[in-house]
What does this fold into?
Amino acid sequence: MPQNQQIQERILKILKITDETPLVKSFRVELPKEVNINFYPGQFFMVSFVDDSEIRTARAYSIASSPLNKNYLEIALNKVGPFTTKLFGMKEGDLLKFKGPYGKFYFSEEIKNNLVLIAGGTGITPLMGIMRYCNDANLSNRIKLIYSVKTPHDIIYRDELKKIKNENKNFNYVVTITRSNAEHSWKGKIGRINLDLLKENMEDVKNSLCYLCGSKEFVHSIIEMLESFGIKKEQIKTDIWG
It folds into this structure.
């Protein structure tokens, strides 16, 4: 965690719940005007329920919103167990407890490198925070997102990715799907992220900083490929889920 960062615990109201895909919802919680929570894009908060006698555990969720947005925090997730099942059953106006920020996986404006953001599935959430922040702050970093999902229906933040690309000449992205069939009418990349796809989308290997987020298997396979064509360990930041 960055030095001098203050951990806070706040009970926050759900402002908005959005179906991002058939399996993923995003949750925005309100930041009251008197609350000032400082975090870096890419960091996470521990989220828990308020006065819940059944589920007392907390779960770590990366923040998908930009730190420059002082009105809300946003997380996005799929339903995988009792905690997320309960979360999916909540409604706007309900309360959640957020404690943080935490994590060494983050971006700050002092970083001037080209950014290569690589994600699988919901691993896009902390990277979305980085993309939104760079766009909001009009930073000059060249950014390429390489994103793998099962089907076109599973592309989280699909419309916003298009919007950022239209607004920001320094940003571009490529999506590859791993389960293609004729009904999708998909004209983009097909298959898992491989060495060729990585090489195609890295303009300046020496000056690039890579942010990887996804499952352990996913992240380790990407690291192996990146290192095979000259990316050094210090150029790779990882956020491993599960």
